[in-house]
Amino acid sequence: MSESNIVLPTLTSGQVMILWLVLVSALVALAYGVVLIRVVLAADPGPKSMTDVSDAIELGAMAYLGRQVKTMIWFVAVIFVVLFLMYRNVYQGLTLPLGISIAFLMGVAASYGAGCVGMWLALKANVRSANAALTSFKGAMELAFKAGGVSGMFTVGLGLLGATIIFLVFRENAMKVLVGFGFGGSLAALFMRVGGGIYTKAADVGGDLVGKIEQDLPEDDPRNPATIADAVGDNVGDCAGMAADVFESYEVTLVAAIILAAYALQESDFIAAYGQYAGAFAVKLIMFALILRGVGVFSSIIGIMAVRVPAGKMLDPMRPINIGYMTSAIASVFGFFVVNYLYLDDPRTGATDWRFACCASLGIILAVVTLLLTNYFTHPDKGPVTETAMAARTGPATLILSGMAEGLESSVWALLVIAAAIIGAMAIFHESLALQFYGIALTGLGLLTTTGFILAMDTYGPITDNAHGIFEMGGIHQEEASKTLSWMDAIGNTTKALTKGLAIATAVLAAVSLFRSFIDEAHLGAIGVQINMPTVFVGLMIGGAVPFLFSSFAIKAVSRAAYQIVFEVRRQLRTHPGIMEGKELPDYGACVDIVTAASQKELLGPGILAVFSPLLVGFGLGAGALGGFLGGTILTGQLMAVFMSNAGANWDNAKKKIEDGFLGGKGTDVHKASVVGDTVGDPFKDTAGPALNPMIKVMNLVAILAAPFTKVELGGVTLLRVAVVVVAIVALSIAVIFSKRGSIAEESLAIETKQAA
Q: On the chain, which terminus has fewer CB atoms closer than 10 Å, C or N?
């Protein structure tokens, strides 16, 4: 039996009522987001010198998102049609094929919507937080965090709203349609992550290389022509991109739990254990997952409200943030056990089965350990960052080596923590394989229960980064406020690293859960994925290699765009000496145009790779090879994502630590060495690393969607298989060719020719 044959038992009136209550909780999340919007917009934006800078950043960010939508709309339209045609041959009638395709569009729209709303308010909040810093650390800190909460609450609200509406419309067949919703969210997140990451880091790297190293300009100096592009990039990459990323993690973990609860109906151990109650209990497991998402709305609100900064002197911003997160986490665990007690008893005995609340709580424990681990490797005051900063005394080479080593080590511990969580979920449900996989999905669900708070914590980072930049570019001179914003900005790097760590952990848990769905859908349950078979081992190797090629595409794009930015900044400073004298404004628009064009040009390659590489392996080598492919991708993708994210944050905060006065401070050779390390780490932590998270899930969902057509292991050549393989090869060839366009060698030759002429 496969997903296409599973029909859930008819929902009872009580279960329909639960769906409506979950829908109400989604509306509560959106309503609280609106309340936070009103609070932020009511704050004073400050003097015109700062609002002018903020307006320029907002104009560039909104223009970029508009161009991105126009670029990707055709790709999305093609996938919409392909999904409908594919599932037209799987399901009878038009309802389910059309439902899957429309759900895909809903996922894309919700993911973009969550990113856009969060980014829009961040653009409004950055200047207000900067102005608040003139009065108090407390006001600036709390305003920035509340603004970040808008992104969190809209992500939670839109995700839960979409999933619940699908369940209310499709009822017993909802789990078939939800795959499309998750796929749409993941694909949109991939595009926003890659495009925004290329944009922000190209401007950041290019601007720093000339401004800080060649010209000894401070961070965000208005004389640097790349400053506006850098500030715009913080929003399109870290606000819109991360919101879309967390949205798809939030949605895919829910989809995985629902699908696995439904799949339990075809598992012999589950049926043997629950007998005549199996069908009704499976539906209760689905409802339990949805209710936990509703619990997360309220625990996130409680956590955001708990972030309070004492009046008085400046303190470590991580302290109130940690208090808020722990408050949210404790509220979530309390909610798990209350829901478990009230709703999920064992149908055979009538006693409460506490294992389900325990498994969800395991996700909270995983989140806390992941946060502590990431904080250790990336916080400016911890040993690893101090070690990396000290290494700058002997130049950029030793600094880069030190940060790279810390990143490599952190990826090992992160993987072991995730592995321990998976083993823990299996131990809790040791008697049933079906419940073991549901428990793993429930762990991922528990980890992201506090999504509203997690995104508030993440969006706080780019808001404070922009606030610091607007303060400097606005020409405001107040030493205490500058120190406040600088300290908030440094901790913002840590909060961004923390949330990336959580997103990567959920990617692995969701991928493991979805992998089970793929095994069932591809009819591999009896034989498994046998890596001793040559085709399967080939699939494993290809899957392990794809994250490397994907990362190469992203980093190469940043390198090339940054190369152009360096020459443009040098040109402006050379031909317009009045810029450095403060008598003439730079042409900020030229740098904005360069990174906008580069990010749009490089956008399709990674997307094509994520969609077509699993299709090539599945249709070319069979379902078993596709299973091996997914295993390889999950493993290397997780290791590389943690390594790049933590190494980049380590280098960045080592630079911030030195800029705050450590080892001589700004303008020293030690500082210049740290800037080199930071520029190497920028595309690691903000482009390639975090983009691997949606890539993993896109590939898993593509595999599930394609599994019904790849069931036979090299079982004869059909016209469909040949056609898909040919199209995939052509598409992947185009992706590789795209990645080669505009190479630095070609750019250098063109520049030299132009100068000679």
A: C
Q: Which residues pair with 352 in a beta bridge?
A: 345
- Spatial contact of 142 and 304, defined as CB atoms under 8 Å apart: no
Helix or strand run (H / E) with residue 164 = helix 137-170
CB 425 within 8 A of CB 702: no
Do the beta carbons of residue 689 and residue 558 sit within 8 Å?
no
Nearest to 356 by CA among 457, 220, 260, 227: 260
Mean pLDDT, rounded, of the chain: 84
**pLDDT per position as a tens digit, 56-101:** 888 888 888 888 888 788 888 888 998 888 888 777 778 888 998 9
What is the C-alpha to C-alpha distance for residues 181 and 351, in angstroms, rounded to an integer?
35
> Using an 8 Å Cβ cutoff, are 329 and 367 in contact?
yes
What are the residues facing 385 on neighbouring strands?
none
CB 550 within 8 A of CB 691: yes
How many alpha carbons lie under 13 Å from residue 500 in its C-beta half-sphere?
37
Cβ atoms of 117 and 84 closer than 8 Å: no
pLDDT of 350 > 70? The answer is: yes
Tell me the pLDDT tens digit for each residue of 376-417: 898 888 889 999 999 999 999 999 999 999 999 999 998 999
For 190-299, where are the E strands, in sequence order?
A: none
Q: If you ran DSSP here, which 8-state letter would residue 352 be given?
A: B
pLDDT value at 528 more than 80? no
d(CA 497, CA 490): 11
Q: State the total domains in the chain.
A: 1
Looking up tokens 């400053």, which residue turns up?
A: 227
User: In angstroms, what is the C-alpha Rg of the chain?
Assistant: 25
118: containing domain: 3-756
Backbone angles phi, psi at 432, to 5 degrees: -140, 120
